[in-house]
Amino acid sequence: MKMVFIGAGSMAEAMIKGIKNAEAFSQDELWVTNRNDKERLQLLTEKYDVKSSYDLSSLLTDAEVIILAVKPKDASDALQAIRPYVKGQLLISVLAGLSIGFIESIIGKAPIARAMPNTSAMIGQSATGLSFNDQILRSQHTLATSIFSAIGSVTHVEESRLDLVTGLSGSGPAYIYYIVEAMEKAASELGEDAMPFIIQTLKGAAHMLESSDQSPEELRKAITSEGGTTEAGIAQLESHHVKDAFAECIKEATDHSGRLRRQFEQAHNI
Ligand SMILES: NC(=O)C1=CN([C@@H]2O[C@H](COP(=O)(O)OP(=O)(O)OC[C@H]3O[C@@H](n4cnc5c(N)ncnc54)[C@H](OP(=O)(O)O)[C@@H]3O)[C@@H](O)[C@H]2O)C=CC1
Ligand SMILES: O=C(O)[C@@H]1CCC=N1
């Protein structure tokens, strides 16, 4: 099976690495192209042993899956470029905000899946939300699901939910890295010893959330002794309204995904 990535940036690399590591699909079947950065293509082909080409006709004509992984601002150009060669292949978009309707407005009726993975795909730990249009064959539904299952968890959602998935888990790893930056700064006196404490604390908390039947609030309360250190620390978070700030962060990212979509739709009279 031939799978072609249109776009060779961070998300394409995360998926390529995750798919290669999963050994779910033969490496000979992964192809990648971009707009003009030849050095980047060379790096990806050498690092992951995938193939590259700028000849869209030969790249796409016998492809089974086309994965669109360009920035939203470049989507229109990329879709116009591939349109002559899209003839029933499964087209998967990972773009934030870009609706299936927008893609159809350029490509026409075609089997389209819209996915929102995250960069933890690189280590097989993405949390992907996945939706489809009504042109998808049963076998293509299974294939798209198996591609994202190879690089993490997959949840089928209504397309209208993908803005929230984008704000929550598409961008989510960045919020966690942001917290880690703060923890690292606060623990700078430990020097390079700080990071192992931070990483294991995150891993332990994630595994507790996964395996315990207690809610996050109950788990937090079990750590918070009356008059103790956690209570003192959390009081600072409360005084800075950190919980509200996080809720607003996710809401703003979600709303931005909707704004991106509306911008495209207005620009193309959809
Ligand atoms: N990064 C992330 O964490 C996530 C990203 N996404 C989505 O993935 C998409 C890609 O993001 P990301 O990988 O970070 O972006 P990058 O900027 O890292 O990569 C974009 C790629 O698109 C290529 N490109 C641009 N125009 C064209 C074109 N007309 N034809 C072919 N290739 C083209 C660029 O090539 P060149 O360098 O030659 O210009 C580049 O390789 C975005 O739409 C984003 O919403 C989704 C989930 C998570
Ligand atoms: O920041 C972005 O727009 C992309 C989409 C989700 C994660 N990164």
From TrEMBL:
<keyword id="KW-0963">Cytoplasm</keyword>
<dbReference type="GO" id="GO:0004735">
    <property type="term" value="F:pyrroline-5-carboxylate reductase activity"/>
</dbReference>
<protein>
    <recommendedName>
        <fullName>Pyrroline-5-carboxylate reductase</fullName>
        <ecNumber>1.5.1.2</ecNumber>
    </recommendedName>
</protein>
<feature type="domain" description="Pyrroline-5-carboxylate reductase dimerisation">
    <location>
        <begin position="159"/>
        <end position="258"/>
    </location>
</feature>
<dbReference type="InterPro" id="IPR053790">
    <property type="entry name" value="P5CR-like_CS"/>
</dbReference>
<comment type="function">
    <text>Catalyzes the reduction of 1-pyrroline-5-carboxylate (PCA) to L-proline.</text>
</comment>
<keyword id="KW-0028">Amino-acid biosynthesis</keyword>
<dbReference type="InterPro" id="IPR036291">
    <property type="entry name" value="NAD(P)-bd_dom_sf"/>
</dbReference>
<dbReference type="Pfam" id="PF14748">
    <property type="entry name" value="P5CR_dimer"/>
</dbReference>
<keyword id="KW-0521">NADP</keyword>
<dbReference type="InterPro" id="IPR008927">
    <property type="entry name" value="6-PGluconate_DH-like_C_sf"/>
</dbReference>
<comment type="similarity">
    <text>Belongs to the pyrroline-5-carboxylate reductase family.</text>
</comment>
<dbReference type="Pfam" id="PF03807">
    <property type="entry name" value="F420_oxidored"/>
</dbReference>
<dbReference type="InterPro" id="IPR028939">
    <property type="entry name" value="P5C_Rdtase_cat_N"/>
</dbReference>
<dbReference type="InterPro" id="IPR000304">
    <property type="entry name" value="Pyrroline-COOH_reductase"/>
</dbReference>
<dbReference type="InterPro" id="IPR029036">
    <property type="entry name" value="P5CR_dimer"/>
</dbReference>
<keyword id="KW-0641">Proline biosynthesis</keyword>
<comment type="pathway">
    <text>Amino-acid biosynthesis; L-proline biosynthesis; L-proline from L-glutamate 5-semialdehyde: step 1/1.</text>
</comment>
<feature type="domain" description="Pyrroline-5-carboxylate reductase catalytic N-terminal">
    <location>
        <begin position="3"/>
        <end position="97"/>
    </location>
</feature>
<keyword id="KW-0560">Oxidoreductase</keyword>
